[in-house]
Amino acid sequence: MKYKLIALDVDGTLLNDDHLLSEENKETVAEVIRQGARIVLCTGRNPKNVIPIMKELGLSGYVIADNGAVLLQSDDLTVLHQYGLDGRGLDPYIAYCREHGMHFDVNTAFDLYVDNVEYLAKEALYMYERLDLEPASLPAWEEFREPIVKFTVFSTIEQITEAEREWGTWGPAFSIQRSGDFFIDFMHPEASKGNAVKMLAERLDIKREEVLAVGNYYNDISMLTFAGLGVAMDNSPLEVKAAAAVVTGTNNEHGVSAALKKYCLS
């Protein structure tokens, strides 16, 4: 098989709009694995809510979580690499979020913290319940015992877009990535899906031209451009399609299955 490492985004790519894994995608992934390729899920999610999807797919090995900030071994959840950031540098952004009523959370590799867990808005509470995550209240920075890997802001499209414009003028202290219509993620400047896939490929002694990546959003661009073949979903924004080499079907049309059949199994 030409492609030995296949990096798949999860939401908007592997899963449909109901956040479900189709039988078509599941069966094609299983066939690709049988024929010798490695598949790694590469997502903005916390590892805790990626592992169940891996189990449903019959995958083991590695997972790239938090938009590339964390690379771990899925079997025993050993963190192989993580890009930590200085929480104190987030203080101006937290102040902005509080002033404008925007929800945020602070993430370590496995844990998630919010401003005050007792006063979560219904929308945020629903989001965490759907993702099977249990946030805790944000402690003081000096109380953290694990590296902070991601700071995520969740709000309306209009607020997120305006904040993204404003924060873009504040300087390059963080990598600021739009990971969804309603989300912005702050990470270490070197943290990205592309760098994580590159690191994993080197670890597995796989050449860049032997990597295929499939994604649908701005935070996927780095891995689409790194891969020997970058595949954008048809439900991607135009900029993401432009960054990819080819476009497949939408996430509701089993576009991952179609891409794997065409470029890996044909």
Automatic annotation (TrEMBL):
Gene3D superfamilies: 3.30.1240.10, HAD superfamily/HAD-like. GO terms for molecular function: magnesium ion binding; phosphatase activity. Pfam families: Hydrolase_3. Keywords: Hydrolase. CDD domains: HAD_Pase. GO terms for cellular component: cytosol. This is Hydrolase.
